[in-house]
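Lab notes, practical 5.
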Amino acid sequence: MPELPEVETIRKTLSLLTLNKTISDITIRWPKIIKFPDDIEQFKLELIGETLHTIKRSGKFLRFEFDSVVLISHLRMEGKYRLVEEAEALNKHDHVIFHFTDGSELRYNDVRKFGTMHVYPHGTEFKHAPLNKLGPDPFEEGYDYTYVLEKLSKTRRPIKAALLDQMIIAGLGNIYVDEVLFLAKIHPETRSHLLTDQEMKAIYDYAYIVLEEAVKQGGTTIRSYVDGQGEMGMFQQELYVYSQEGKACKTCNDEIIKIKVAGRGTHVCPSCQIYKGETKE
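Output from the prediction step:
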């Protein structure tokens, strides 16, 4: 599933390929991807004739900013974009095709069909779902230690569940939460409200550090992720625990194990991330 580093990498590559192009038509082969407007013809009407000026990101969401509207796209599990020439044959998983006036096409491909698209007028996109309840990501001004301390100390959920909550910190998913908690030496089942100030600070710091390095590496390719130019990410070579079950910990040489926390497969070093139970130290 693309997380913040993958989405940021896609944003950068698509920006090199698609800016200043004007939409001449849109083909929608799987209407359920379109969430707002829920009328397909209205969705097309909002975008046809619009020129793409910039692509921004909020957490895991792409924001395509046109003349008068903003297209918000969430890739969910396996969504991806690619720019092609009109003559290229369609893939069976190409579900939304944006036709440009220069003859090129931006195709949204999604094997699982879980992705979503919303279109809103400029200036209203943060007033509606899905962005209206989104927390700040570690690269935004709203992300500071006071904010993180306040949010994490108010929930009794396991810290893994709290960090996956996009209303608290946007952009973190299963891969990078596991990596952040390993580097912070915190067991993922630890109740969030029981974390010490030092542990909270470690999460705050490592969330930024891990995501920044993953962005530099072009993201993480575990299964199917590629950027807007079809290139794989390289951060998988830097992973400490995610998908490393059965391998030796790079820090202590103990075996990485896989457990389930908050319904998600979770990777842990039992020696570096000791579960302390319900006692706050």
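Observations recorded by the TA: The first helix runs from residue 4 to 18. The helical segments are 4-18, 40-47, 145-153, 159-164, 174-183, 197-216.
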